[in-house]
Amino acid sequence: MQRRSSTWEYREFALPRGTTREATRMLLTGAAETEHWELDRARIFPDGRRVVRLRRRVYRVMRTA
């Protein structure tokens, strides 16, 4: 049986400067609970904008019969 490397799907959010921490948390929590995303990277720039990248594993189903 071959072992395959993990394949990931990415989704990026660019949140404006005025977005509160609570609003960001609610957005990310909703994505994690309903669509199985997990946090990959979060960047906060000096001007206050946030860029968040989420990832989730892509499962490839192999035919067995």
Folded structure, characterized:
- The chain is α+β, with helices and mostly antiparallel strands.
- The chain has one domain.
- Helix content is 23%, strand content 35%.
- It has one helix and three strands; from the N terminus they run βαββ.
- It has one helix at residues 21-35, and strands spanning 8-15, 38-44, 50-57.
- The two termini are 15 Å apart.
- The mean pLDDT is 88.
Question: Quick gist of this model?
Answer:
The protein is α+β, with helices and mostly antiparallel strands and 65 residues long. It is built from one helix and three strands, in the order βαββ.
The figure for the number of domains is: 1
Strand order of the largest sheet: 1-3-2
How many separate helices?
A: 1
- List the helices and strands in order: EHEE
User: Percent of residues in helical segments?
Assistant: 10-25%
Q: Please provide the count of β strands.
A: 3
N- and C-termini, Cα separation: 15 Å
Q: What number is the mean pLDDT?
A: 88
Structural class: alpha+beta
Low-pLDDT parts are none
Question: What share of residues are in beta strands?
Answer: 35-45%
What's the oligomerization state? single chain
What would you call the shape? elongated
Largest beta-sheet characterization: 3 strands, antiparallel
- The radius of gyration computed from the alpha-carbon positions, rounded to a whole number of angstroms, is 16 Å
